């Protein structure tokens, strides 16, 4: 895989000093000043706090500042936050970067509200995170969903073939943009170069939810980033694959197809007016760490992981580690997708087995679990994971196939490329009266709630979507296999809300 990117070629690097962390340094100066706080927050730089927990929190509380004199304002950055965002844009190859303290969720909602007015159409990949659907709901948009492709070995959804998306765009020239998830939760990524060209020829932006690809393009051995391919808006969870604190994310933009002024206005509406400055500073530090050390460490980590994966694979008798396929353009080497050769053993069972071995997987599904590695994994840390895999592999050799019942295929999406236009907008469906019925009696009705297996947080059903027999069967299968549903009206999944 040859992914050399000119973005990080020494001859084209900017003169910005990435050893600096302006926002973090400003908070350190704030702490050293020891001025008497006569403003929020109420813990007064940690002077008033739970005594038992103070030792653990004190260092953070001292820099848990607010938009006071000497510290910049996220909603109108002119100083330290502005400088930190400029450095981030340079590091990731964007024209402009916005810091987010509500995760990629806030970024996705902000994108929807920026691009779409009530009634506007937008072409959306169906296997998007729930935050995209929530954003479209709030905007009053009329999404046109396109069914994803399914990778044949793992059975997980990925970006559909570009021909399907391009045809959908030609058939719907009045859409406000094209929105995809790339990579998926499992690290599978498609080459979007042609799609970018198609979108720009049509005069619409390409939006990429790249929550799990913040490290993409940062080394030759990982997939290229969406920004390097020309995407217009890219949302990244800097806390997922890089080193920022939980909830700290970035929204990057390129070009002029989207109004930066409107996007800034929208983010000012939906982000807290009292954002966490430690979280914002962690974004500044994550960028510095990445540029100063992380890129080199990423290369070393990938080499260690790939070497060990290749060595381990032929030793396994019952487990498999996915090594890529012709159906996927790029595979993230920081993610190991593990499944059992015995298809009767679900990913939910593997999750429990590995948990007992001291390893908590990132995600489980009917077939797989996913291990997520960091930028900097030592050989010792990798060996701990390898030993757990070997132990489970040996344990499963003792399992009789009769101990598990054979299960049918779990269908999550329509046939690849299928376009679906909801009969009722997400916003209208959300506000309509509803009633609860038995799940088996819901076939043919319009769904009245979001049915959300979690993770990965991709809705199986959304408000206003027609419930089919396949939906009912899939919900029952997932529940029986041990899947977790987030915020259902009925934890047993034996009943569901439908629109009256």
From TrEMBL:
<dbReference type="Pfam" id="PF03711">
    <property type="entry name" value="OKR_DC_1_C"/>
</dbReference>
<dbReference type="InterPro" id="IPR015424">
    <property type="entry name" value="PyrdxlP-dep_Trfase"/>
</dbReference>
<keyword id="KW-0210">Decarboxylase</keyword>
<feature type="domain" description="Orn/Lys/Arg decarboxylases family 1 pyridoxal-P attachment site">
    <location>
        <begin position="22"/>
        <end position="379"/>
    </location>
</feature>
<dbReference type="InterPro" id="IPR000310">
    <property type="entry name" value="Orn/Lys/Arg_deCO2ase_major_dom"/>
</dbReference>
<dbReference type="InterPro" id="IPR015421">
    <property type="entry name" value="PyrdxlP-dep_Trfase_major"/>
</dbReference>
<dbReference type="GO" id="GO:0008483">
    <property type="term" value="F:transaminase activity"/>
</dbReference>
<feature type="domain" description="Orn/Lys/Arg decarboxylase C-terminal">
    <location>
        <begin position="420"/>
        <end position="480"/>
    </location>
</feature>
<keyword id="KW-0663">Pyridoxal phosphate</keyword>
<comment type="similarity">
    <text>Belongs to the Orn/Lys/Arg decarboxylase class-I family.</text>
</comment>
<dbReference type="InterPro" id="IPR008286">
    <property type="entry name" value="Prn/Lys/Arg_de-COase_C"/>
</dbReference>
<keyword id="KW-0808">Transferase</keyword>
<dbReference type="InterPro" id="IPR036633">
    <property type="entry name" value="Prn/Lys/Arg_de-COase_C_sf"/>
</dbReference>
<keyword id="KW-0456">Lyase</keyword>
<protein>
    <submittedName>
        <fullName>Aminotransferase class I/II-fold pyridoxal phosphate-dependent enzyme</fullName>
    </submittedName>
</protein>
<dbReference type="InterPro" id="IPR052357">
    <property type="entry name" value="Orn_Lys_Arg_decarboxylase-I"/>
</dbReference>
<dbReference type="Pfam" id="PF01276">
    <property type="entry name" value="OKR_DC_1"/>
</dbReference>
<keyword id="KW-0032">Aminotransferase</keyword>
């Amino acid at each position: 895989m040859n992914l050399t990117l000119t973005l990080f070629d020494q001859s084209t690097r900017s003169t910005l000093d990435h050893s600096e962390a302006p926002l973090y340094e400003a908070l350190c100066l704030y702490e050293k000043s020891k001025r008497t706080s006569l403003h929020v927050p109420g813990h007064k730089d940690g002077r008033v706090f739970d005594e038992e927990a103070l030792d653990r929190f004190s260092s953070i509380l001292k820099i848990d500042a607010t938009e006071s004199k000497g510290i910049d304002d996220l909603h109108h950055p002119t100083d330290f936050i502005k400088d930190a965002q400029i450095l981030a844009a340079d590091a990731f190859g964007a024209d402009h970067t916005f810091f987010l303290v509500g995760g990629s969720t806030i970024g996705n909602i902000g994108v929807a509200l920026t691009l779409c007015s009530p009634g506007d159409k937008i072409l959306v990949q169906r296997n998007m995170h729930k935050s995209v659907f929530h954003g479209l709901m709030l905007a009053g948009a009329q999404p046109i969903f396109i069914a994803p492709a399914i990778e044949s070995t793992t059975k997980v959804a990925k970006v559909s073939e570009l021909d399907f998306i391009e045809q959908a765009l030609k058939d719907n020239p009045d859409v406000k943009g094209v929105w995809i998830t790339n990579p998926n939760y499992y690290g599978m990524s498609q080459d979007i170069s042609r799609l970018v060209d198609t979108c720009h020829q049509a005069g619409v932006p390409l939006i990429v939810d790249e929550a799990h690809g913040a490290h993409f393009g940062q080394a030759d051995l990982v997939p290229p980033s969406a920004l390097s391919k020309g995407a217009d808006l890219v949302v990244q969870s800097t806390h997922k694959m890089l080193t920022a604190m939980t909830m700290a994310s970035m929204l990057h933009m390129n070009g002029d197809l989207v109004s930066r002024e409107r996007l800034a206005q929208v983010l000012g509406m939906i982000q807290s007016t009292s954002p966490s400055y430690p979280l914002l500073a962690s974004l500044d530090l994550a960028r510095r760490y990445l540029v100063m050390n992380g890129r080199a460490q990423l290369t070393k980590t990938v080499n260690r992981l790939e070497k060990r994966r290749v060595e381990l694979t032929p030793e396994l008798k019952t487990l498999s580690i996915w090594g890529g396929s012709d159906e996927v353009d790029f595979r993230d080497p920081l993610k190991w997708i593990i499944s059992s050769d015995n298809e009767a053993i679900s990913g939910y069972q593997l999750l429990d087995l590995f948990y007992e071995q001291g390893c908590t997987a990132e995600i489980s599904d009917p077939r797989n679990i996913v291990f997520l590695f960091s930028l900097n994994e030592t050989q010792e840390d990798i060996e701990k994971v390898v030993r757990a895999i070997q132990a489970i592999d040996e344990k499963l050799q003792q399992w009789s196939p009769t101990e598990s019942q054979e299960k049918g295929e779990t269908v999550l999406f329509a046939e690849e490329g299928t376009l679906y236009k909801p009969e009722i907008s997400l916003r209208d469906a959300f506000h309509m009266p509803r009633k609860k019925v038995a799940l088996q009696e819901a076939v043919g009705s319009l769904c009245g709630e979001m049915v959300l297996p979690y993770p990965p947080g991709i809705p199986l059903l959304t408000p206003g979507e027609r419930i089919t027999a396949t939906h009912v069967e899939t919900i029952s299968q997932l529940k029986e296999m041990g899947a977790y549903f987030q915020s259902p009206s009925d934890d047993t999944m034996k009943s569901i809300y439908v629109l009256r």
